[in-house]
Design a protein that fits this description.
Porin, 23 strands, 51% strand, disordered N terminus, mainly beta, 16-stranded antiparallel beta barrel
Amino acid sequence: MRALPYALTIFLLSGIPARGQDKFASDRPIEDRVRELEEAVQRLGQAPPAAAPAIPFLAGWDEKTGFALRSADDRFLLRITGQIQADYRYYADEADTTDIPTFLVRRARLGIESTVLRYYEFRLLPDFGQGQARIQDAYLNVHYWDALQFEAGKFKQPFSYEQLIQDRFVPTLERSLIDQLVPARDVGLMGHGQNLLDGRLDYGASVYGGVINGDADTDRNKEVAGRIAARPLRDFGLPDWAAAIQLGIAGTYGEDRGVLGPTVLRTPAGVPWLQFAADVRPDGLRTRCSPELVYVYGPAALAAQYFAEDQELRRPPGPVVAVSYRGGYVLATCLLTGEERTSLSQPIAPLLAFDPVDGCFGPGAWELVARVSWLEVDADDRRGFAQLLDPARAATRATEVTTGFNWYWNRWVRMQLNWEHARFNKSVRLGTGPGGRRDHQNTLLARFQVIF
């Protein structure tokens, strides 16, 4: 109705000739002016045209994506990622001359992730940490559907939940004792899917070279791996705390007659406690099995995993010995400053970031971490098994307890502090002289990390 007086004014003024103009020059039929009035009222009564939709950024920084280049139609994306981990390790036992306190760049990575034509995902991740240059990831993933994807190249194998946690987000500085035996990054083919059955199921199955963490096969044989993770109580009307339970199981199967790896078993802090003789080789079947339990709810997270491996080893000219590895870990974390987790592979954004230059003196996010892990190596043929080991480092069981504190300054910067106590069932040679044989070691580990 507000438009009507304005329209009437237009109508009335339209009949008044301009100064100096013949009054009959503007005379028009009354029907034309009525029609113009009706059109003017209709136009003024309409809603203003909707604003054009916002065009997504084409190049720059995004809080969720990081540094990226993006096409206007969102069909192409190029993302640049980075990770620096500067560590310090202090070995408290001075009689241990094998492990000396040291500074090191644990990881130094600059990667590229891209999406091509919306459905083809590519990742290239080189690492220059610890004075070495190595390709960590190099793969293509065909992603038409979440439930059915295909991956080829070098990638993490679908086996250990702990290994599948992204390196930049692992709550402890290093993974547990069993991690050195699980398949990590290897070259192969994989079919996998996420969030099947309304988010209740993830799966993966792959065929790969069989190297624990390598770039090329060492024999003609291949290995297969598979993992299933289920959240069976999700979306059944149960409380949120019950729906967060995840159960999983994984396994591998294959023949191995290549190069033994690892040849030395170490604690997470790197202390060696079992070493095979230099000429020991795998010579037969290798199988692994690992059930898992994961629970992430609110500020707390719990992960537990059991590991069992059986492998046939041989030291020529001796017989084949069936060696068994048994171990596991339990990991618990808790955020103390009010933040919440949805998984263990996520950045933590503090509620009050620590940024004193901009006048933000928030505490950041504080997190407590605790873990216990163990690993035991044995064989039915005890005499044959003893021939496989270096007598200087022949402990057959190790247990470690790690406690830690994580300080997240913001979403991208984290400081970590871990104290690891490791104990062995037999003394191992870590230094010279009578005091050089040790059955335990205490280690302080510290890290400053920046990611994007």
